[in-house]
Amino acid sequence: MVDPDPRRLIPRTDSLLCHPRLRRASEEFSEHVIRAVIHGVQDRARHGELAPEGVEAEVLAEIESLRPSSLRRVINGTGVIVHTNLGRAPLSPSARKAVAEAAGYVDVEMDLKTGRRSRRGEGARRALLAACPAAEDVLVVNNGAAALALAAAALVGHGEIVLSRGELVEIGAGFRLPELIESTGVRVREVGATNRTHLDDYASALAPAAGSEVGAVLKVHPSNYRVTGFTSAVPVAELARLCREHSLPLIVDVGSGLLAPEPALPEEPDLATALTEGADLVIASGDKLLGGPQAGLLLGKSAIIAKLARHPLARAVRTDKLTLAALEATLTSAEVPVTRALQADPETLRDRTERFASQLGVEVVPHDGRVGGGGGAGVELPGYAVRLPAGAAAALRTAEPSILTRTRHADSLLDLRCVPEAEEATVLAVVRGVLTRLRSPGTDQA
Ligand SMILES: *Cc1c(COP(=O)(O)O)cnc(C)c1O
Fold this sequence. Notes:
By secondary structure, the chain is of the alpha/beta class. The chain contains 18 helices and 19 strands. Strand 11, helix 11 and strand 12 form a beta-alpha-beta unit. Pyridoxal-5'-phosphate (PLP) binds near residues 220, 221, 285 and 296.
């Protein structure tokens, strides 16, 4: 007799859990994850979206595709080097190795010779000091924003911090640095105008007056925009002289994290120059042009760093051991991917792109690379891209591995600047597959 209700034929959870492949998966994934997959497939069968006989195969397919993290690897074919939506800087091979090694127990806060507690992250601290000898001492925190909040809270407290109106930066996702600073209880004393701020503007704010509570002067590099035309800003050296006269600290937020001047980005400030010109404390991110992990770097005078390290907020923005490992390895790496992409020679890029394109029968077009969220606002890095049909973008984005391209007019442009040479063969195979599907009629894409 035929069962009137096919839902009764849906395999039960317990019997599915006995399948050898599910038992193997349960050594890697928690039982609630595996049960959730089973229940999801059973539900679809109950709603008639799937035949009961197909349940087991579907459960097995979904279990096979489980990954420990939902984050997926993406190949950056956009030519945008520090891509905020793709996690900013990709780590160097040695930084990746250091992260893997630090994942277990490590001596992050212990001197193994004496068995005593040691200063946390001493290796990363030494590497930063070696990379930037202009600094007396350094402190590493969770990110650039945390570094700025800590500096304001520890050095200014309930007083005021002086900041030019041309430097009231919104860093992204609606977050504004002045609001971040004010959230610590520090008041921002704006000086100058949007396009022009002069030394006199700072001097009047610092002039002794009844009730004046200025605790520091802050200079912020506008990383993601440029004010052009009738403009003027006060150089670090002049501000430093003024601050010294008033015995006030000068904090410079350079944003990008360049250790030294970078010829490819002549207008980008760097940590060493800001310190040499007299900044008492400089702040930068670790995952922009430095090419390392997400981190906030604070470099400067020993007394100031000591004050920051003692502040209660320092503990709230403390760096994780994986970050410390990656940062130290980044600073000791021969070359990091960000620098390689930034300094890529246009002729070499053209040869590479032409070789790639000729294997697919597609065209090469000029395409400027960008620094992206890491700085270098408005800077165009001359380069090339492979021109693909518009329909390729979505297919490549959802491929395995995912490849992100740049859309220009009706084209999808694939720029090899940020694609490691070792991954070129993989990219070629994925693009070839996508183009074949787009070109052959009768498929869903045609
Ligand atoms: C990026 C940036 C920040 C914020 O740094 P995060 O590491 O993103 O927190 C602060 N100031 C400037 C000038 C920046 O460019």
